[in-house]
Each structure stands twice: as structure tokens, then as C-alpha cells.
Amino acid sequence: MCGCGEDKLWGAGEAVDESRWFTYDVVAEDPATHARAGVFHTPHGDIPTPIFMPVGTKATVKGILPETLERMGTKILLNNLYHLSQRPGADLVERMGGVHRFMRWGGPILTDSGGFQVFSHEQFFKLSDEGVRFRAVDYDGRWQEWTPEQNMRIAQQLGADIVMQLDQCVGYPATRAKVARSVELSSMWADRCFASHTRKDQALFGIVQGGMHLDLRVRSIEHLENAGDFPGYGIGGYSVGEDHETMFESLAPLCAEHMPRNKPRYLMGVGNPTTLVNGVAAGIDMFDCVLPTRTARTGTAFSNEGRINLKNARFRDDERPLDEGCGCPACAGGFSRAYIHHMVRQKEMLGSILISEHNIYYLLDLMRRARESIIAGTYGEFVSGWMASPAANDW
Q1: CA–CA separation, 190 and 148 (whole Å)
Q2: pTM of the predicted model, to two decimals?
Q3: CATH superfamily label, 6-289
Q4: Which of 12, 119, 374, 375 has the most crowded Cβ, counting Cβ within 10 A?
Q5: CA–CA separation, 317 vs 328, rounded Å?
Q6: CA–CA separation, 10 vs 103, rounded Å?
Q7: Segment (H or E) for 339
Q8: Each residue of 157-207: pLDDT tens digit?
Q9: Could you tell me the residue ranges of all domains in the chain?
Q10: Which residues are marked as active site?
Q11: Contact criterion met (CB below 8 Å) for 212 and 250
């Protein structure tokens, strides 16, 4: 990373008092919404919230160098435990000094539990109270078994700053009985993850499940709060087939009325701009999603005009940047829509890279502006202005 010495790259970031590791300071709360601005402290640096976390599934944000991510304002990255456990394997990453050294990133990293990927294998997994048996159909096809204890061993080998408990996620729609069973399993597994997690330089977050049933969500968070002192919580089981209006029917009261104030709330797998704006208003602090890079690879960019598809012929002679006034490498670098249209149509990898950089910057900057608005006490106005603007047309 540019301008970084060995200590910052592979060891801890700027000096952080160990007694403050994994504490969360709420620095401002908006008077008109449930939005709050805060700081979560980690060994590799402080994370200002609200924040968007770019996804580097296999220890890389596709096509983007770590120093570029740093220059764009990235404060924390996400890796995927399932994929890294399959290739190159947790043992190798550990031998290489952990995931920070392996991918040459000196800031905070979060690894998810891999549970969502395992349960997306449909008929190729089997659940029990003990754990999950699954077939790695996207790798070598072998059947493998994960208990919460084995999952924590992998997480500690990888060495991220924040790791997630093993949980069970069900899609939407699902019967109440199936969702209740996922809460039961996730709660049992949270207890075992908490008992087996021993790294003091790593935070273990619990995960709230419960589908669209608020009472099951409340049951889940109450169990986690009683199970142990988790320093933060993921909120899983959303964005699994439901529309966002349905999601907020339970998400909004969950955050406003039932989740602890002094711990960060991480809405997992959600990343379109309007949902981030509304999620912050509901009280969410952290977001991640593959959307900005996945849509970039299809030629789609976020903008203050709403989503734009650079494959469209109307951009062939367009001299403007992707978004006027944007400070991302693509826009600030002078690359025109016409040029990026040409790259996308010709399937040149630079087109995907430029749009990926733009989309990530767009979400990082959106969260930066949201934070400033919360601190100023004007986030309600920020939301109203956003929803009245063309930018809200992001589907």
C-alpha cells in the first residue's frame, strides 16, 4: 500500500489502545431518524460508521489493487471464509502470515463464516445440531463437515480483525417452522463459537436470524445478548429473495427497539445505494455486498442519474465522466463514458475495472456524506433529498 511501512502493512495499524479494541463509540445520533455515526476500534485501525465494506471474496477485490482501494477511502474489506478455506486453504494462509499479509492489505478485514455459501449448495448439504455436512460442488466436489468449533479454527487461522459465527440462513419465502429452526441452530452454534473462539486480537460477531418474523428476530438477539459479550452483531437472512419493503418491515423495528445501542449493527449482503441510505436511517452501521463489482462486470454503474448501463449505444459519443463531480479513479482520471462504453462492448477488462472502482467509490462516498449529515443532525433531510432525486432509481 502506498506510503505504508512493513509494520502497518502486516502488523497493527496506527497505534490503538488494546483496552479499546472492539469497542464502539457512538459519536452522533440523528434527531429525525435512527441513524447514528460511530467508531469501531480494531488492531488494524479505527472504522468510522456508517461504512460500506468492499468485498474481496477470495482475498482480492476483483481487478483493484490494495493501494487503489486505500486511496479511494476504503476503511475495511471483507473476505469469504468458505472460499479461502477451499483454496488456497486456511493452513496456507496461516503459514503466509495471515490474510492481511497474504493480500497485502494493512487495514481492518472482516471474514464471514461461509455459512451462506454452504447453504446455497441446495441439495448438497445436511444439517444437524452438531453442524453441517456439505459437498464443495464449486471446488473438488468432496463432502466436508463443519462444526462451529472447526469454523472458528479456520477463522482464527485466517486472522481477520472481525469474524462471524457459523449460522444457518434460509431463503425467502420459507415456512415459519423452517425459519424458527434456523434461529434455534444459529443460537446453539453461537454458544459454541463463542466458547471456542480464543484470539484476543480478533472480534467474534454474533448473527441475528429470524427471516421476516420480528418475534423470531427478537428471540435471536436476546439469546445472543445472554450468551456472551459479542462486540457486534451481523443481521443475516435478509436480501434472500424478498423485496426491500418487506425487509424493512421487520428490520427497522429490530434496530430501533431491540438491538443494543453500544454495539455495531452489520446488515449482511446488501449494497444498492438507496437501501444503504434507508438502512442507515433504520440504525444500521455496516454494509457489504458484491453488487458494485458484479454489476460493473456487466457494464452497469451507479450515478446521480440512477443506474446507467454502459453497453447502451447512447453512450457511444458521450464525453462526460460516469458521474459529474465524482472523485473516483475513472471519473477524476478523465475517462469518458464513450471510452468506457467502448471497453465494455469490446469486453476489455479495463472497462470492468474502471466501473468497479467508480461503483465502490460511489458507495464509500455516499456513506461518508451520510456520516457528515448525521453529525450535523440533518440526516432526515439527507434521506428526503435522496429519495426525491434520480439517484434513487438504482434498480
Answers
A1: 8
A2: 0.95
A3: Queuine tRNA-ribosyltransferase-like (3.20.20.105)
A4: 374
A5: 21
A6: 10
A7: helix 337-345
A8: 999 999 999 999 999 999 999 999 999 999 999 999 999 999 999 999 999
A9: 6-289, 291-395
A10: 112, 288
A11: yes
